[in-house]
Amino acid sequence: MESWQKNKAVILMMGLILVSLVGRIASLSVTVNDIECVYEYVLYEDDTVSGNFVVVDHDIFWANDHPGLDLIVTSPGGNTVHTSKGTSGDKFEFKAPRSGMYKFCFHNPYSTPETVSFHIHVGHIVTG
Questions:
Q1: What is the pLDDT of residues 52-92, one digit of tens each?
Q2: Cβ contacts of 101 within 8 Å, gap of 6 or more
Q3: Is residue 88 within 8 Å of residue 62, measured between CB atoms?
Q4: Which residues have CB under 8 Å from 115's CB, separation 6+?
Q5: pTM of this prediction?
Q6: Pairing status of strand 89-95 against strand 48-55
Q7: Which of 9, 32, 61, 121 has CB 3.0 to 4.6 Å from 36, enough for a Cys bridge?
Q8: Separation in Å, CA 45 to CA 33, 79, 81, 122
């Protein structure tokens, strides 16, 4: 029984180390009234940044004429690296052109607050 507990602890520790080396994952919900931004730091140039977002309960509250939300992702240098326009949800993936703080901004053209479920994953594969 004691051997199983040691093995279990070793497996858990190896899993945690592997996750910390491969990438970071962040999930959150944010309420967007007009413009709401989320920031994520990317440690290495050429890291893969991926994720998705979805407006919660959009099918219940949105009329057919709702323009949807926009997502604009900006690099530390101020360049746009991803854009999603007029949607209730989308996936994204890009290679980070440089390390630093990336800005993920949602724009809601309607005055009614919308809750967005948002997921970001930054992956770094060690080479060499």
A1: 999 886 555 556 666 789 999 999 999 999 999 989 899 99
A2: 39, 40, 41, 42, 76
A3: yes
A4: 29, 30, 31, 32, 55, 56, 57
A5: 0.73
A6: antiparallel
A7: 32
A8: 33, 14, 13, 11
